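Whiteboard transcription, Tuesday session. T.W. wrote the structure tokens on the left side:
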């Protein structure tokens, strides 16, 4: 069983969430999946996460709202935002919001690996 820092995957699409959790675990990380920003905020387990990998567009609180809420709580974990949408402004908006990495779906394993390494270096 993987040990080390916890990575939380937040995506409302069950198949995407399960695939990402499986991929991240196969890379040797501990990982938990959540169906919404609200679910991750309510989770005791997620409070100790070292990295959050979140979809930007979700029902309810979106990825940007999640980042703002975590920042307000003093969270310093690495934060990665992802989307399947093509709007060019989203990458800059994500980086301006404090994401250490921006990924487009479908994610490439090598890009995810690099993003996780960067996010886990974030103080």
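and on the right, the sequence the group agreed on:
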């Amino acid at each position: 069983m993987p040990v080390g820092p916890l990575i939380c995957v937040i995506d409302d699409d069950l198949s995407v969430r399960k695939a990402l959790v499986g991929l991240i675990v196969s890379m040797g990380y501990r990982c938990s999946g959540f169906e919404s920003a609200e679910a991750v905020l309510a989770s005791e387990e997620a409070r100790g996460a070292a990295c959050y990998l979140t979809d930007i567009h979700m029902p309810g609180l979106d990825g940007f709202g999640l980042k703002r809420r975590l920042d307000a709580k003093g969270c310093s974990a690495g934060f990665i935002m992802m989307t399947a949408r093509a709007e060019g402004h989203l990458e800059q908006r994500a980086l301006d919001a404090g994401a250490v990495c921006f990924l487009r779906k479908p994610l490439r394993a090598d890009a995810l690996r690099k993003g996780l390494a960067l996010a886990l270096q974030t103080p």
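Someone added at the bottom: The chain has one domain: 6-121.
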